[in-house]
Design brief:
The chain is built from 14 helices and no strands. The protein is mainly alpha-helical.
Length: 345
Amino acid sequence: MRAVAVQRLHAVRRRGRARVVLVQLVLLVAVVAVFCAALSFGDMNVPLGDVVKALFGGGDRSAHFIVVELRLPRVVLGLLVGLAFGLAGALFQALLRNPLASPDVIGISQGASAAAVLASLGFAVSGIGLSAAALAGALVSAALIYSVSRRGGVSGQRFVLVGIGIGAGLSSITSYLLTNAQVADAQKALVWLTGSLNGSSLEQVWPLLGALALLLPLTALAARDLGAMQLGDDTAAGLGTHVGRSRLALLGCAVALAGVATAAAGPVAFVAFVSAPVARRLVPGSGAALVPAALTGALLVTAADFAAQHLLWSSQFPVGVVTSLIGAPYLLWLLARANRTGRAG
């Protein structure tokens, strides 16, 4: 009987691993499909064959200009931003064991927004300086939230509640800065605050790509203890995990991922919030589902930006408008479900 039970357990695990691999492949194929569609479709359609030739340095000059110089930076930036937000949301929710633990809910994005608006409207900072200000704001707000919530031990519920409170204060600072700015300047800042890929260039892609090249290996290294951390602090400590050090490392990676994504494209709403739950539903029982969540985030942002450009009425919208249309109903559903079950997360 014991041998049969062990065989069944191994079979279940094999099926689980196979499903994870299959889901990841399907998500990757979907990302590639949307990537190709975004490069091919627009005011001037480019056949897929010409898109491939342009990407590899061939084809005529007009196709190369449209695909490589105009469309490619925007699509790549959206893909990288979505990947970073999706992974950050999965880390926050798994570590804090709370479905509301997302950078755009717990104050991280609000800190980046307040710092960026202050730098833009108060000191006329733009370009890479504006991105640096947004990243610094995310890091400072995260440090403030952590320092306040750690009293008596960090818990997911306390961290989320403190983050929501600090985020509200930071949002009020942003609103104050906008109301006291010139109309034209405030309008530009508001587009950035919505989350936009408009006007994307390689100058925005390379810093984000370099940051992710550093953060992804660090996240993979820190995530080795995530499975134990999800079992609770006492259990993780009993398994030999250095709880405080591991939590700080994972939170640092999550904040940095959210910060660099916000610095590149603004606080694109609800991507981090939605990606992880969708990924966990696709691969139930697989823990934090970090890779599926990252791929889901990349797919969500690229598909939402494609819809914002071509599928919604006759005007182009910032990508954050479409992601908000997706994420806001999910948030309401989550709160309604929590209310019915008598718990808050």
